[in-house]
Each structure stands twice: as structure tokens, then as C-alpha cells.
Amino acid sequence: MEERPHKAHRPSKVDKGKGKEKQHGFNEKAFAPKSGRRADRQGRRNVERDQARLHVPLVNRTPDTEPPPVIVAIVGPPGVGKTTLLKSLVRRFTKQTLNDVKGPVTVVSGKKRRLTFIECNNDLNSMIDVGKIADLVLLMIDGSFGFEMETFEFLNILQAHGFPKVIGILTHLDLIKKAATLKATKKTLKKRFWTEIYQGAKLFYLSGVLNGRYPDTEILNLSRFISVMKFRPLVFRNSHPYLLADRIEDLTPREQVRVSKGKCDRTVTVYGYVRGTNLRMGTKVHIPGVGDLEMKSVSILGDPCPLPDADSEKRRKLSEKKKLLIHAPMSDVGGVVYDKDAVYINVPGSFTRGNNDVPQGEGEQMVMDLQEAGATLEDGVAKSHIRLFESSSKHLIVDADMDDDEEDTESSADEEASDDQEEEDDDDEPGFETDDDFEAVPQGANTGRLSRRNPTRTLPVASSSKLQPNDVDYGESDSDLGDEDDDDLGRRFEMEDGDALDLPDDEDENMDGDEDGDEEAVPRWKQNLSERAQALTSGSRRRKDWMKLIYSSNLTPEEVVAGKEEQMEDDEDEDVDNEDFFRIKSVAKREEDEEVDRSKERVNSEELKRLEDEEMLDSLRRLFITGGSTQEGQAEEDDEYEEAGGDFEDLEAGDGAASTSAAPVDPEASRAAALAAKKEELKRKFDEQYDDPEASKLDFYTEKKDEISRQLQLNLDEFKDVPAEARALVEGYRPGAYVRIELVDVPCEMIENFDPTYPIVVGGLLATEERFGYVQVRLKRHRWFVKTLKTNDPLVFSLGWRRFQTVPIYSLDDHSIRMRMLKYTPEHMHCYATFYGPVSLPNTGFCAFNSLGAETPGFRVSATGVVLDIDRSAKIVKKIKLTGVPYKIFKNTAFVKDMFTSALEVAKFEGANIRTVSGIRGQVKKGLSKPDGAFRATFEDKVLMSDIIFLRAWYAIQPRKFYNPVTSLLLSNKSAWEGMRLTGQVRREQGIKTPLNVNSTYKKIERPERRFNPLVVPKKLQAALPYASKPRAMKPQKKETYMQKRAVVMEPEERKAVALMQQIRALRKDQVARRKEKKSEKRAEHAKKVEKQEERKGEKVKERKKDVMRTIGKKAKRELDAEEGRGAKRRRT
Amino acid sequence: MAQTLIHFSGHHHLRLRLVLSILSGKPLKIDKIRSDDKNPGLRDFEISLLRLLEKVTNGTVIEISVTGTALLLKPGIISGGPITHDCPLSRSVGYFLEPIVLLAPFSKKPFQITLKGITTDDQDLSVDLFRTVTLPHLQPFGISDGLELRIKKRGAPPAGGGEVQFLCPVVKQVKTLNFVEPGKIKRIRGIAHAVRVSPQFSNRMIEASRSILNRYIPDIYLYSDVYKGEESGKSPGYALSLLAESTTSVLYCAEAVSQPGVAPEDIALQATRALLAEIEKGGCVDRQHQTLVLLMMVLGSEDVGRCRMGEPTPRTIQFLRDVRSFFGTSFKIAPADPLDKESSQLLYSCYGTGYINANRTLA
């Protein structure tokens, strides 16, 4: 056996030339579609998939630079490990261990992200509030126990309020010992979690607890997930400003509290990052659990937990120092303990001033800064270490030749304000140091200006400044230039000298506020000083500061436009107390502008006269497309304008002198700049087209996205040069700013029963949301809520920021004709509910609860839905049936009583449709005088005396005006809030029996059987009737019939015959059955045969078809080849 | 919850204040209405306007003092729908249309309002200008589909007899305006109408107007619109309404109405010169429509809206002040081209309030 040679290797017959190993690179054919149709389908599918991936473009109002911290809420049933997780995460981010976590904890997690952790306790109110503000929810689930009711309730709350991102976290998995059980548990819990959130929702598993924390690697993984998570803006939060208060303080004077024994309304400040949209003054805020409150003031504070700035920006990772930053005023962190109304500063270890290595909490810093103040203010000013801006390098110097510096720093005025005002500033200064209100300066030191003014009023739009008598200052217009010209000139030339001169009028305080914001363009300012002076000498008009004129002066609009404000204002200032003067003036005014509320301007004939001039008319040509820039003389000037700032209309083109003198500031420079900008734009366009010609053609989605981002950029840029305070007035406080909001008239219980473990959310209200009305919602009872909901039972809604109890009425749309009241909510169906309460915008989601208490058994979310409509009246009707009985019946007419009680009522219902129970329709005709309320009615047929007649009508009902906000934060036991109870609940609690109405009890209804009398036709009548109509009532036959009387007895032959016939029939039956069976057998056989034949035939046909197709294919290929050849030829030509 | 009452004195700027109150939902109190006048209190057209506002809203409470010199308005919601209103003969339909145009986009149901009275007079915008100029101003704000003003009958003062129907769609939110390019005038249109006078009058007006305008551009169409019989109202009268449109669809308008003893040619010249004066002033919005555009900018989404306009009229100035007290929004008003001393044009920019039509019904 062994010597037998092995079989020689036989190489495979398959040609290896096309083998896989010979192929290089991507095989295009492998994934190419097999047919055109398939290619088409694949293309369609790809496009569809791409479209399905897109979301509706939404504006994200949260800025990309300096966004507010992301709120990460840790939610779960008690004992699941929330605090442990929070501590672990905080330790991961800041390397600090918190002992006692209360309230929000803010940490820096990355170069562009901060996180605010908040732990949500098990109270339903807290869950609702947290659900409204959380950006990311860490939903903790006890793996050894499974899901709890609170988890599902919380998920439903989230769903109603916009559904933020949710990460599930399974804990206590170490309690499951068996690996198989662990695996199974994980699987089932994951499945349940996925059905609740979405398929593939992230679920983390935390094994055991080590040293009071979760394992570091697991926390690291989780923290990485948190820090890179992206968030989609939620509609409600994107239209409301809000903040999560991380600090709260009571500012009420202690004395007031003492006098009122702690019962007075408090003034409270809350601190936090603005989120959502811009927070604006003048709107109200709502603190869920407290109520609507008025904002007295808002101020931006320094960021207590700032993002890393430029110097650390260079590295990829966060510097170690930044990692230590943590802001949690309510917890014992950073040495600051926040305790109701005091702040305790804990200094760790050895504390020495000047030791900068130890991180300083803000409290520490503050105290140390206070201690630092060594010198008095006067000394400070003398040393002049006051800097104009934080960024400015030079200090202010108080001496005679400071004017130059001054002018440098505030240079911007040339853009917006008239220069002589500045001049006057300078003039004021020498007299300044003797001024009484000098103390004010240090506060306003940021302005760096030594002129006398009120530092709180740095804004051109400040409303308070209206009351200041001496703050009025306006640019003059042509009309008064006549008398003031010399004065102006004088000032201007003085300014050039840089000499100070005391002028009697001390105006222009307000101007400074908007001027000192920007500090560039100094050289330019100086450059054209003389030019501008020249311009002014030639009688050109000065520019008005419209913002100031409009918003912070008490001139009438007419005066503002006429521009004669200065003298008028002075007069007014002098005669503030002179009543007589005022009266006369106002009367005069009234006469003149009786018809001021007209939209068409009165024709100004002088103005029009001007236009009669031919030259004037010709000068207007430039404003038309045909005009171009062909005119000589005017032309070059026009060009200049065009290049300087787009085209614009020259107001006084006719005034030759004016237009020539007012040349643009620096035509060369501006022209060059414009040209450069133009070139830049062209270059960009070219690059774009060259790089990707397709890119310039945008689809709808990208277009929208671009539009949004462009608008956001514009929002940022538009007010960039406005000083911060003025900017806050114009656009509010932007999201991301750390603000302090002062709230007035806060109930004292909020402070007295303050508990930092309950979140304080400050939600901004829109103007409409402050109003009340009837709100119509689409509502569905939650399928897990066991009871049905009943109309007029109180229900607690969580709608918008608010939680409130109200009394809804349920209804359904009845054939689009009416809203019909429902007594109970329908099963598995939406219905409408209408209630009285604060208005919310349509499309706002809500959830409703019967009770918020913890002891309520079962699932507490009783309904969810969405707001549909807001109105001041509700159109809900319920059916009412009025019944009556006929008391006299004619042919089609009946007299009906007992439906109404008076003739007046009948008169109201004349013409109404009525019906009997049996369905005979009729109409109310006219009331009868007796008995009261009886009426005549006609019917389509004769009614019976026994019929009940009813009138179906609709009765309009309005929901009760009941609104009861859930003031849970005001209670000492926050979960013990109890709203209006049901009557039954009150009775049960007080042990009162339900009063029984005798008429309402059910009694056995006795219905005596109706007996009908036999129809008796009188004999006489019978006789007269024709035969066909005669009643055929005959008595039943009493005697038996012939057949009944006889019994059948058969003869023997007869019996035999009958038996024989039976046998024959039986035989026949059997024969038929056998024949049938045989036939069916044969048929089956035949069918088989036929099938076989068919099969054979089919094969043949297939073969034939194959042949045909092959030939066709060959032919097509040949043709194609031929065509290609031709095509190639053609291409060549 | 007691809302903050906003308090004003005097009868001036009544219409816009009422509109602002209804839009913002803040109650309004006005006192000292012509208290020193020989004929104190509200006038008949003001009462009529209040009636009209009551008709177009639901739940509005209007209290007028016994003397008629004080007024309290607690606004309800704007309901819209089919409404008919007879305007008194003391003011034209334009007086009533102006507040209605501002309210209509924010109502619950689309407006179908029929106003009867004087259609053209010299105090308020005529219905022609409303149709051709005011309504197109709403287009950049996203209010265009189904926006229509139908002039059923014309009515000249003093007897009136005209009838217009105003249809307006409902919007959810107005778009943010960014309108800073005035462009150049590319076409001029005009309507010369004459009722109960010789139809030749309108042709004469057109001739006269063309004598000035023909020099500028060829694209001038002045229509002669003659109403006859029942549709021409009860009094004789004629007027010329002109509008100029720029390449960026800026609209300037002017008009002149017949006066006794003045030839139609002079009326036409007056209108034409007024139009040229308006064109000369420039900006993206003409003087009559400043308040309309500014209000829509305030009501825009929470973005920065910008518009270039001429100097504010007294009406506009008071309006800006009122807007601040109702909405808390103030405008940034800066020179449109700061380099140029001569230009009086201003750039108005504001941060919209994000006003959403809460009255609108969902499905």
C-alpha cells in the first residue's frame, strides 16, 4: 500500500487569469446595477434615503461661541444611585469630591462645553420642571429591579415637552450574580427601553460601586459620550428664554422682614445662565411652583465658570487648572456654602493672601478684593490708575493737556454724533473737580471720562433719563442754524486749538454713553477735523442722533422733526413748575394739530414749487434706471457716492454749495476699500465656481440652512458696535450670559421653605402667555391611566412653563356642525378639551395629571395632548331634550302640553322641529292661551295619545373660570400640594354621606301589559259591506276531520309491496354512490396525466424562448457595437 | 393676573395705539381726549373705529367715559371673518383700513371685510394706493397669498357711497425684513379716476402728468379708471394716484384729489411733483408706510430686521415710542451711509419680538 505513488497534482481547469488574486483595486462591475431599471430604482432609493435623513431646518438660538452650559439631569427612582453618579461625574471632570450635593453643579467639560448637572428627586413636580429644561437626561434604572412607574411617567412628561436626549443607565447590575440572568436582564431591559425611546437608544451599564463611586473607566466612557453629544433645538425652548437658578438670594430689607414677622413679600435675586432665546426686560417670568413674577432688573455678571480662553485654546486638551473649575453655589463646593440667605466661605488648608495657587471661589475673591482696597478713591483718582477700558494700555491722567488723550479714546463720535458736542465735553472738564456729584465717577469709571454725569445712565435709550432735566441735547437743523451759526463756528475753531473754554450749557451727557463703545478710527477722526469744520461753516446740516431724540427726550414728535428742540427744551426745563406756561403752549399745539391722525401728509406747496424748476427736475434723472451717471458736473460726484456706500439719494441736490462742500470723508480710501471688497467678492465667486460648479446650485435644504446661518450672523453683527448695556436694551440678554435677575413681590414662603434639592426654573413668558382665555386642546387619555376622565373634574395641566389645576370640558366635533360636550373622555381616541387658563401658543404640548401626590397608586399621567386654539369664548353645546305629551289630537295636528311653562317660551320655539318617539316629525306652530305652555303642533302623520313628543335642542356651556397654579415650591413639604378636590373626596375625608335625592333613586318600573279590545264590526255594517271587505273571522273547526278520525292498517300484499319498493330504492342509492367514486378516481388520474404533459410542453417553450433571447441579445450587441463605432466616428468629426 | 395698564393722554395717534394694544394684548387707557376742545371727547369716526375693532375682535372690552374724553381698551383676540362696516362720512375708508391691514394677518380666520363710505379723500390714503402700494408692502413679510383689496364702488366726498372689500390671509409669523437696497426707479404706474364728472377729466390728468414724467423713463402707464352709474358713488370727484417702483421693488406713492376750482391738470401736476419729491427723499419705504413696515419688523421672528428709510415723520416718532412701551422693543437708528454728510437716510434695525400669531387655529 505504501509504495503506491500519490496521485499527481492536477492543475485546475479554471482559467486563473481572471481569478480574484489577479484583480487590483475596486471592481466596478461588482456593485454596478444589473439593469437600467434596477439602476433607476437604486438611484431613487438613495435619494429617498438622503431625504429621510434630513430634518426640518430649525434655527438654533443658542450661540456657538460661549453657549450656556448643557443641562444634564440625572433622573431615577430613589436608591438607584443618582447621587453616586453625580459625584462620580463631577469627580471625573473636576477632580473634586463633593460631600453634599444640592442644586445644580456646573463644570467645564471641554474647550467649548460646560455641563450643569442637576439631580432630580422623586417628586412629580420636580420631574416636570426638570423635563422642561434638561438638554440631556441620564435616566437611571435599577437593573436588579427593573423599570419603575416613575421612569415611565418621566418619559411621558418628556414626550409632552419636547423630548430632550436621553441616555439610559442601568445600575445595581452587580446584584445579579448569575451571568445568564444578567445577560437576559440586560436584553429585556434594553428592549423595553428601546420601545420607549427609539430603536438603538443608548443604554449604559454601570456595574458596582467602588469607594462610593462608579468604576472610573465606565464613568470615563459615559463622560465622553456626554461631552460630544449634539443637541437639536427644541421648539418651545427655542422660543422662550429661561434659566435654571443655581443661586438664590433674598434682598428684602431685614427690618421689613422683622416688622412683618417674615410675612412680607420678598425681593429676591436669582442667578443663572440665560438659555433659549434672548431674555428681555419688560416681560414677565414664571417660576414653576411659585407663579408669575415681575423682573425688576437684570444684570450680567462675570461668568463664574468660564470656558477656557485663548491661551489655553492652543492645546488640544483642557489644562489641568481649568479642570478644577466648578460652580455649585448651593453645594459645599469651592469653599462657598450657600445657605438660604447667607454665604459661608470655607477656606481649605493654610490660607494666605497672595497665594494664587489655591483656586479661589468667587466669594473668597470678593472678600479679598474688598480687603485690598488700601487707598481712598480720591487717592486713586489722583494716582489715576483708572483705565478707560480694560483693554486700553494708558491710564487716565488728570491734568491740563489731557484733552488729546481724551479725544483719542472717544474718537468714535465722528460717525454718529456731532463734533461740537465732544468739544463741549472737553470744555466741561476744567470745572469738573469742584463738582458735587463727583463720587459717582468711580462707579462709572469704565467710561474713563471725567466729565460730570450720571454713571447709571450710559445708555441712549434709558427710559429713566427722560426725567433728567439737563440731559437734553440735540443736533440743530438748518432752521436754527441761522441764529446759532456764529456760536457754532466759534466753538469749532476753538476745538481745533485744543483749548478749553467754559460754556454755559452742559448738555450731551447722553451722547457719551454710545460714544465710548468703540475705540478705533482715531487717525481718521483727526484727519478730517478741518474738513469737517469747513463743511460746517458752509452751512451744511448736522446729523441728528435719532435714537436719542426718539427714545430719551420728551419732545413732541413734531418738535423732533422740526428740529427746534434746543430752545424749546431749555424753556421747558426752566419752566417745569410753571403751570401757566405749559397750559398755553399745549392749547396752542392742540389747535394746530387737530387732524394729526392722518396718514397722508399735508401737501407742502413750497416743497412742490421747488420741483417746478426744470433743472431740478433734470437733476432727478439719476434716480431712474435710465438716468445712469451721464450728467456732467453732477456725475463725478454721483460716482463718488455710488462707490462710497451704494446709491443713495441726495436730499438737497439742488443746493449746489452744500453738495460740493460735503465731500465724503476720505474718497480715496473709501474707494480703495470698496474696490478691494468688490475684488474679494469676485474672487470668492470665481473660486467657488472653479472648485465645484455644482456647489453654487443649492438644493432647498442647504439654501434654508444658509439663510438661517446668514441671519444668525447678521444678528450677531448688527449690534456689535453698540455698548453692552444699550445692546441689552435693544436685543436683551443673550443666551450664555450669566445674569442676576431681581424679582419683586415674591411670596415669602418661597424663601422660607427653600430647598435646594428642588430645581428653580425661571421661564420667560411671551406677551401672549401672560393673558388668560379659553384654551382648546386636543387630548387623549393615557392608555395606562386606569380611570376615565370626567368633564368638570379638576385636572392638573403642565403646559408651557406652568403647572396649574383647571376644570376642562371634553367635547367632540359633531359632523363639523357643533362642538358637542362629552361627559367622559372616549376610549383610545382623541377628543377636545376646553379649559380656562393662561394662554399658550398653538402646538404646545402638555401632559395632565389627576393628582401629583406620591401616594397616588398607579400611573399618574392621566392625559397628554397639544394646544389647538385660543379664544375668549367657548362654543361647546350639550344636548337637551324637551318632552311633552299630546292632549288633543286631530288629523295631523295635535295640541301638546308639558313641554314649556309659558306662552313666552313657546313663542321662542315657534317653528322648531319636534318628533315623536315613533319617529313622526312635526313643527311647533303657535302657543295656546290655556293651559300655560301648551302649543299647537303639526305632524306628518297622526300621532297617538300615548306618544311622547320631544324637541331636541343644544345648550351652550362655558368652562368654569377656575385656575389654580400649583404652588409646590411655597410649601414646606413640597410634595404635599393639594388642589381642589372632588366633592366625593371631600365627603369621604370628612365622613359626610352623599345626600340622596328621592327622585333620583331607581325604582322598579311597572309596565302593565296592554290589552287590546277585539274588533267588533256591527252586524248591520257587516251586512252592508261588499263581500271582499267582509270580516272573515271564522271559528276554528271543533270536530275532527275524516283523516283524523281514521287509523291506517295495511294488507299483507300491500306491506310486501311497500318493503320491496324500499329495497329497490336502497340498491339504487348504493349503485349511484359507487359510480360517483369511480368517476372521481378516473378524473384525478386524467389530471395527473395532463399535468405531466403540460410540464413537458413548458420546458420546450422555455428552451425555445432562451434560444430566441440569445439571438436577440447577440443581435443587439452587434448593433450596439456598430453604433459605438459610428458614434466614435461622429465624435471625431 | 392684573396686567400692566398702558396710559396715554390725548387723541393723537389713536389708531396706532389701539392697534398696538390689540396686538400686544396689553390694556390701554387714554384720557384727556380733546378735553380742552369746544367739542370734547371722541369724534364720530373714532367711535366708529372702536366699533369696527369690536367687530373684528372677540372678547374686547371698550369702556368710554360719560364725557367721551377717556377710553379704556382691554383687548381680546383678533377673530376676523366676514364683516361689514359702514364708515362715517367724516373720514374716508382709508382711515379704517390702515389699522385693519395691521391687524388682519394675525387673526383667527382670514379677513373678509367690506367697508362702505368715502374711498378717496385728501386726509388718508386712497383705496387705490392701498391696493397698489400698501398691500405690496406686506409681501416681503410673507403676507401675499390671497391678499386683495377689491374696489366695488367708488365714493367721493362729501356723500361717499363707495364700497371696498379687503381680503387678507392669516399668517403664523411674519418674516424678518432685510431691505437696504433702494435701487433705481424702473417703472411708474398711475390710476386716474373720475366719478360723476366727464371721463375726459382723467385723460387730462394723465396728459398733464406725463408732461413731467415722460422725461425720465419710458415705462409709464397711467390708467384711466372711470366708474359709471351705481358704482360711481354719490358725489362727483376725481383723483390721480401715482406710484413708482424701483429695481428692488421699492414703492413710492403720491396722489392728489380734486379740489373745487382747481383744474384737473393742476391736480395731476401736484400729484406728480409729490411723487418726485417722494422719490427724491429715497429710502426703501416711503413716508406714508414707515409705521407699517416698522411694526411688521417689530413683530418679526427673533432676528435682526433692517430697513433703510428716510427721516421719521412725527407719526413714526410717536409710533416708535409707543412700540417701546407696548413691546419693549427699541430700534437702532443709524445713518445709512455714515460717510456721507448729505444723506438723510437712516438704517432702522431692531430685534424682532418673535411674535407668533396665537389666535390662529390648528387644524
Outline the fold blueprint.
The complex is a heterodimer of chains A (1133) and B (363).
Chain A (H helix, E strand, L loop, with lengths): L27 H4 L4 H18 L16 E6 L6 H13 L10 E4 L5 E6 L4 H10 L2 E7 L6 H12 L4 E7 L7 H18 L6 E3 L10 H13 L12 E4 L2 E4 L3 H6 L6 E8 L1 E2 L7 E4 L3 E11 L8 H4 L6 H4 L2 E2 L8 E4 L2 E4 L16 H11 L4 H7 L19 H7 L3 H4 L2 H10 L11 H4 L34 H20 L11 H7 L6 H6 L1 H9 L8 H6 L5 H6 L2 H10 L4 H14 L12 H6 L3 H6 L14 H12 L10 H6 L5 H25 L8 H19 L5 H8 L6 E9 L1 H5 L8 E4 L7 E10 L13 E5 L2 E5 L2 E6 L3 E5 L7 E9 L6 E5 L11 E11 L4 E14 L3 E5 L5 H6 L4 E4 L4 E7 L7 E5 L9 E9 L5 E3 L17 H8 L28 H6 L17 H4 L6 H81 L1
Parallel strand pairs in A: 1-3, 1-4, 4-5, 5-6, 22-26
Antiparallel strand pairs in A: 2-3, 2-13, 7-10, 7-17, 8-9, 9-16, 11-12, 11-17, 12-16, 14-15, 18-23, 18-25, 19-20, 19-24, 20-32, 21-22, 21-23, 24-25, 26-27, 26-31, 27-30, 28-29, 28-31, 29-30
Chain B lengths: L5 E4 L4 H11 L3 E4 L12 H13 E2 L2 E4 L6 E4 L2 E2 L1 E7 L6 H11 L5 E9 L9 H11 L10 E6 L8 E7 L9 E2 L5 E11 L4 H14 L6 E8 L9 E10 L4 E7 L6 H18 L8 H9 L5 E6 L4 H14 L4 E4 L10 E6 L12
Parallel strand pairs in B: 1-2, 7-8, 11-16, 12-13
Antiparallel strand pairs in B: 2-5, 3-6, 4-5, 8-10, 9-10, 12-14, 14-15, 16-18, 17-18
Helix pairs in contact in B: 1-3, 1-8, 5-6, 7-8
